[in-house]
Design a protein that fits this description.
single chain; two-stranded antiparallel ribbon
Amino acid sequence: MVGVSKLNPADAAAALRNPLAFIADRWTPDPRTVRRAALAALVMSVVIVVTGGAVRLTASGLGCPTWPECTDGSLTPTNALSYHSAIEFGNRMLTYVLCAAVGWAIIAARSQKPYRRSLTRLGWAQFWLVMGNAVLGGIVVLVGLNPYTVAAHFLLASALVAVAVVMWQRTREGDGTPRPLVGKAVQQLVWFLVVASVLLIAAGTVVTGAGPHAGDSSDVKRIPIDWETVAKLHAVLAWIVVTLTFALWFVLKAVDAPKGPLDRTRDLFVILLAQGVIGYVQYFTHLPELLVGLHMLGSCLVWIGALRVLLALRERPEADLDLPGPAAEVAVGTRA
């Protein structure tokens, strides 16, 4: 066992002024620890999306009818409430687990040596997205599950997933200037793929807002359009994404692209095929809750897969990284 030195008053004051810097001065995580912390934040961002879908699919969206309390005068469900309250409250509690995962990623990134400001900022971006979506989630409850706010809630969660993916990727790269691995034409094709994926996800939120799973057993307002028509548009966008992915794989083979972009494109194609099967089965079986939940998970995986293809198109070498305070002077002295 390694002894831990006692804190003197100066240490305690420094910890209160800047706890992250205080921890960073006393702990240097292994690069693998930083990668795992970023991955944990990504996994939890997907979990919170899926469990949020479970709240809607079990008609538990108003299980806690107010916010930030569960019910008037109580932060937790009371005996007078139903099991829907436990489901909704459980999802709220998972937000704290997500905050803990993001917090760990921020601390690990801040404590890494050399210090990487860009990595720490990605962690903080996730934190503020979580906070913003928590507030938006409260608004969703207060306005009675208005479908437009529910759609915004999901889209903001998708933005959180995107930032988490970027941070996870950046933990395995340096901070040098990105070097493209493919030509500009291929890069543009991938950007078309990413934009089509965004439109696909957005159309999915409209299907949800107009469809039968309103999130509560009471009379909840729906988007006033035919959900089956929007579902068909959603399917067309899905086929566009599949076609672009298929074409991209052949283009990458034709230009003899590195293994990374090819592997990521193949992974995305497999995810899209599985997601397509689930989508068609749920449509023709009248949207059973389990399949809709799996489709929401698939939506996250498709989004992650598309982003990984985009990020695989370049490499970032090591570079001279930002070093805070005395660490910078030590590094300069070492180079001298």
